[in-house]
Amino acid sequence: MLQHFKFKPMFENRQLPGWNISFFYRNERITGEYHPDGSIVWLSKTPEDEETVKEMIHELMLFHVYD
After folding, report:
1. Most CB contacts within 10 A, which of 5, 31, 48, 67?
2. 21 C-beta neighbours (distance < 10 Å), count
3. pLDDT digits (tens, 9 = 90+) for 32-45
4. Quick check: 39 and 60 in contact, CB under 8 A?
5. Which InterPro entries match (predicted)?
6. Where are the alpha helices (DSSP H) in the chain?
7. Sign of the C-alpha dihedral, residues 58, 39, 15, 4?
8. How far apart are CA 26 and CA 24, in angstroms?
């Protein structure tokens, strides 16, 4: 489970897509960039079970950003 999930636009012009994301997963702080096509560029260590984490992030972003 992801804890303390946060996201904010990458650019001041909020019409340009892209978000900086951060969260805790298994007691490790993870950061990355979430792009409009759903791709994620990890800025920190890649999570162990990356595919599971990506699915959770996509679900959260759909709920919060694209709602």
Report:
1. 5
2. 20
3. 999 989 999 999 99
4. no
5. UCP037692
6. 50-64
7. positive
8. 7
